[in-house]
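Title: Request for sanity check on L,D-transpeptidase prediction

Description:
We are preparing a figure and want to confirm that the structure record we downloaded matches what your pipeline produces today. Could someone re-run it with the sequence below and paste the raw structure tokens into this thread? We only need the token string, no images.
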Amino acid sequence: MPVSRRFVALGLPVLLGGCVSARPAPMAYTAARRASLEPQYYDMYAELDDEPFPVPAVDIDGIDPRYLRQPVAYTGPERPGTIVINPNQKFLYLVQDGGRAMRYGVGVGREGFGWHGNATIKRKAEWPTWTPPSTMIMRQPELEEYASGMPGGPDNPLGARAMYLYQGDRDTLYRIHGTIEPQTIGTRVSSGCIRLINQDVIDLYRRVSTGTRVVVLSGGGGGEGDEFS
């Protein structure tokens, strides 16, 4: 049984370094809301066939349209190239020139597990390895086989890409990463990590480099203009 499905079957959370996944109740959207989606979104979240492992198409009819990738107005003070994360709104912004940003829906830390502050992307990885912490292996001895790391792949909880957040030379243990559970986007589900739909994290990964500044807001403050929702 794949590792993620095994955890669900046992009723146990999936721990991703500093990230714990708790599956939320499924959301329902009206037929009218689904019909309002522009055709481009179905292409944007279609199956990717140019990756080392399968990236299946996303059932975007089950995701609030606000959380689909889209360009928006942005009026915050951050310089272009900065990533700004608003945990309250479950949005990640990549600030661009001309008062614009690319906005992505994200899953964020559960109540009591959030964090905020400034960080820097110091490492990036495609199809990253997942290594359960020793404390988790003590609680779940069956994970001993992954003590040296679970290789990247379609069942790896970190998804297709990971960007590792540091403060100075200290690894915060928080990541911006993909997910094999796209239905968790727009929810509070982790222990602080920021997760994106795999198609979105691949897009973001291509746009940023190591050294990118990341700002995680502490309150409801945004920076977006009239399109803020």
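Thanks, this matches our download. The radius of gyration is 17 Å.
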